[in-house]
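fyi for ur records
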Amino acid sequence: MSKRWFTADIHANHANICIYCNRPWLRPGDLGPDRKWVSQEAASACAERMNAGLTREINMRVKPGDRVIHVGDFATKGKVNGIPGLSGSYTEFLSGLNGTWSLLEGNHDKQGKVKTIGKHLFCHLGGFPVFVSHLPTDNENQDPLLIDYVRRACAFAICGHVHDAWTVKTCAGIVNINVGVDVHKYRPISDDEVLGIYTKETRK
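which gave:
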């Protein structure tokens, strides 16, 4: 039986995310005393390790018939605008992942030329109406009218963007669950796991 998964903030090809979020693919000697890359080659090699590591972690869970909703910032193209990393298309990375992927737009996806299905969507998990958007519901770039509707119509929200800052938080009066890879062992989480986080939060 196929499953649905949620994840966010993969940042494929983007070496700098390993610095910002202390991802495990950094190696001794990659950075100088100033915490900058010693060379473009070191940055590219780190991005390659990260892409390979993320692919392994994702495919350990996701099967070919599954569906994955990626909640923004799928890839950031390297070697442009001073961003170290790989210059390959995000489709090269995507082709190695199991499942059928729906990519929502994050704030880095246009730079990576990622084709997305939109900025947000609504779905149901276990009978609960849910809002899914890269940005948390209290982000200044969210449409206030949209968030007012979400507050009235949805049980909770699924987001990314905040990386390892938190996993679950009430934002603008709405419980937000961060499905980003940096707080979920670099793996997607299932509908049931999302619901488990929501249930635990509401029982506090």
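The two ends are 33 Å apart (CA to CA). thats all i got for now
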